[in-house]
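Repro case for the chain-ordering regression, as requested:
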Amino acid sequence: MFVEFGYGVLVVSLIVTLYSGITAFLGVRKKSTSLIESARRAQLLSFPLISISSLTLIFLLVNNHFEVTFVYEVTSLSMPTYLKITAWWGGQAGSMLFWSWLLASFTSLVTLRKWDRDIEFLPWVIVVSAITLAFFLFMIIFFENPFSRYWLVSGNVVESMFKPTTTATIFTPENGRGLNPLLRHPGMIIHPPMLYLGFVSFVIPYAFAIAALITGRTDDRWTRITRRWTLWAWLFLSFGLVLGGRWAYDVLGWGGYWGWDPVEIAAFMPWLTGTAFLHSVMIQEKRGMLKQWNMVLIILTYALVIFGTFLTRSGVLSSVHAFANSPIGPYFMGFVSATFIASIALLIWRWPLLRSETEMKSILSREALFLLNNLIFISILVVCFWGVIYPLVSELVTGFKVTVGPPYYERATAPLFSALLFLMAIAPFSAWGHSTMQTLGKALWKSILASFVLTVSLFFVYSTNLYALTGFFLISLVIFATLQEFYRGALARQKTKNENFFSALSNLMRRNRRRYGGYIIHISMALMAIGILGIELFQQETQGTVAQGESLNIGEYRVEYRELASWDVRSDGVNYTRAVVDVYENGIYLGQLYPRIDYFFDAEQTMTIPGQRSTFRDDLYILLVDWKSVSNSGATFKIYVNPLVNWLWIGSLVFLVGIIFAAWPDKEMEPVRVKSSAKQTSAAD
Amino acid sequence: MKPKFIIGGVMILAAVAYLIFSATSASAERFMTVDEMLAEGPAIVGDSLRITGAVVGDTIQYDPNTLTLTFEIAHAPADFQEIEEQGGLAEVLYQAVMDPTRARVKVIYIGVKPDLLRGEAQAIMTGTLDADGVFHATELLLKCPTRYEEAMPEQSAHP
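-- result from build under test --
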């Protein structure tokens, strides 16, 4: 009953979506307001329809309808209700439905809000969004159906949406397979929807970009309308990536947060183009330059978003081969290629309209440094892409499949990330149009001097590692230079407006949200870089088996094994084995930590939970590896000291503050309606 | 475009190309199955390799005092198409472990025993092969296909 209903509603939403896309297209071609209005209504209808279908799926998940394949795969009786709800995005079919639901809701938001103002773009936005949504609904209905069921056909279980034969009966397994315990972590529950929110939000600026290309309104109007969408998209995508890292650090028990595996890279690539886009649209708004480039970036981002959606959820992650061979892979490949080629064709058609209004003159000017920043982001993208496709290339060329691992990415990207840090420090001080070494040096010498002094002191008290010192120099330069920029701006305002320093600072920031939010984000990146540098260059580890009362030493820490207990919690379906250790630093007692191993009976899976002690200086990260179950006298531990890693998470929080500050809705000027494609100027950055 | 921008652009391109190529050659690893590795013979002893195979459950041994993990892997195909033709990853791994005629390689890994290590898991390992035919893994990735979306419910055998 519910199953047929959910599926039926889904089919209806596909029809409605197709209708809205086609009608919007015809409406603009025939200049018919009534057709366009009809398209808009159909578009608005798709959201409640997909919501109903999703609610039906959630109902099935919560009520243990294991005859439904998807429910069987992602839930089990022992899972709490909230986990059953979040299982909506716990498997491929459900997460594609979730994706579609997000897209329908975002498009509805766009068409509901400023319909009259953006009337010339919106029919095309509906077309682009409807094409994307229809593709996803099509894939769900025909290939990744979350409502498909198990049937008994002459003693065999088969999977099918509808009764496969007249004698078939529904088969209901007693219990579902459940979510892998490793994924039952709060970080992992919010991580996929965050990534998806980011992915789907980027569809909106893309849709506006395509609308701008088609209508020929190629001034900065589309970037202004979508400015906040882009920021929110970027916020969610960034936050999703950070949560994934935190999950790996807490759960996977290897003391790391990022492993450069293809799935991570698939989510990272749209972030790279998105970040480049976020920077270069400012050049378009301020200087009327890089219009073609912005189009390229948003088109690339869209393609990478679709690619990433597939790759992060398909389970066929090991190589590009697998991608092309999986049942839905060719469709995704086809869709990505088709939309990419169509977008590029549109771009080439409108290329002359997108010429720059000014020419770039000085190599140290603000716009040139922004362009350089873009090139570096794209270089990192190329490094990632090359790493992912290298097995394919090498097999074609040499006949051997050759893979590259994390060392490749680390070696190739470290200089590029360093260059980004350097640009973050100097770019805010360069002027639009023209800058020289002298003007830059004059503005920056105090920060350079302060960073140099700091680096020299670090050389004596912390580390003589050359890479680390270079990194610390760049990081401190970013922080000092950015703080100097805040100070400089506030001081200037204090003088002209006759305000006190702090209200000058706060007014300055609120009047230029994007700019100062951006600077807060720069500082957060520098803080995160401290953490990355610390764990990459200075991680220490030790391991050993100790009897009760004995200790392991690592750095300045001493870890003493006290006791161990093992017990079952039947209601959770888990056996917990927990060790108690005392932690001392230089002989001073700091407290106890409880590393443990959880064993999940239904999944026959262990999960190693570290005992962690975090400070600004370092993390002590203790894993229980093994224990002697009979005498309870000895246990084996692996211990890491991860210096500075906490700054990675602190930086992430500062980052959130910065981006929320930048994206915060305020009485910012609406994009002005102009009839010609004349350059718009504005006071805001 | 002024020439200085073009020169600058070319320099950046060259630097990035150099970065990519030097990093690739420094960390490239041949990816192979057990059969492919054994077919190469002593020529690849000591090379950095990435191999894949099916974990044989009975052979897993762990010495927590030295954190030494040893187990054997049996040859299993790695090509996606081949795996699909033979009935999916879970089936392929099961067959690999059950078939005594399959080539096997002993693996030594020093470190924490991974949560996902069990019989019929797919192991993907980076490391080197020594002259005695033992693979010394420095990195160990495991995939348990029963956790993925391809297996039918277990009750299907006795409805």
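Ordering looks correct now. Chain A touches chain B through 66 residues (CB under 8 Å).
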